[in-house]
Amino acid sequence: MPDLAPDQSGFVEADGQRIYWERFGTGSRETVCLLNGLAMHTKAWYGFVPRLTDQFDVLLWDYLGQGESSSEDVPYEIPRLCDYLTMVLDTLGIERTHLMGISYGGFVGLDFARRYQHRLHTLTVSGILLTHEELFEMYEDISLRFYRGSLEIFEMYTHYMYEKIFGEAFVLKFKDNLDGMRQRFFDRFKDRRHCLVQLTHAQDRLFAALDGRMPEYRAIATPTLIMAGAEDRAIPPWVQRKLCGILPNHRFELVCESGHCVYIEQPDVFFGNLKRFAAARALDFVPVSAV
After folding, report:
1. Structural domain harbouring 155
2. Cα separation of 171 and 82, whole Å?
3. 129-138: long-range contacts at Cβ-Cβ below 8 A with a sequence spacing of 24 or more?
4. 249: three-class secondary structure by DSSP
5. pTM (global) more than 0.85
6. Domain tally, the chain
7. Residue 113 belongs to domain with CATH number
8. Short-list 281, 268, 263, CA closest to 127
9. What is the pLDDT, as a whole number, of residue 291?
């Protein structure tokens, strides 16, 4: 991990909770805000921040149950997480941002756009869906069983998860690194498994309200880039492509030789496209392709 330090960091407080944020930059440039996946935290982005800071300020923050934010065993709500992000933006004087969400962060990003699209320049999502899918619900249900089980069962989940989220090329190249990744995930959440449960329940409630909110999602006019890994087995690209029938102002890019974590597996493509899209603020940007 690079030896990075944010230019600013702090907390916003609401509902008796503390939400941690970090900014790389001084506020003189447009901001790219990176939204965590389910089990991430701000420092998980440190290896990628330098790919953006030559052109943009970068904003990171932890949801409830992650990193430095509050982690009490209380219900979380994704719409309320979106409210917390507006509080962070207001604290920093950021009127609009380029929002990027991967996996769970895509749920937060899409719901933020549903409620606060006037605060966005662009939206980028990856490894995400906005339709009811039986296989995805089954994946959620079995994940909850792992979270609620013994420590031995939770440790087994780290093998199940990392086997599922990466593509073949990445695993062949970095197989020796997977044990370390699993161990860091285990150590981070072994005593806070309730956070994974609460974040998953928040996602369940988001989907329970999906049909009633669908007109609002369809009204998202923000230019939206969808980057799907061609080998994603958690949320297959044919499922992610269904977003194209919902979001009226979108561009879909299929990234070869990548599973669920495109930003890790194909970082040159992922962050190259994110930067070009944000700079153009339009769907007709020239994309980076995997070679």
Report:
1. 8-280
2. 34
3. 129/235, 129/239, 129/240, 129/242, 129/243, 130/210, 130/217, 130/242, 130/243, 130/246, 131/210, 131/239, 131/242, 131/246, 132/207, 132/210, 133/235, 133/239, 136/235, 136/239
4. coil
5. yes
6. 1
7. 3.40.50.1820
8. 263
9. 44
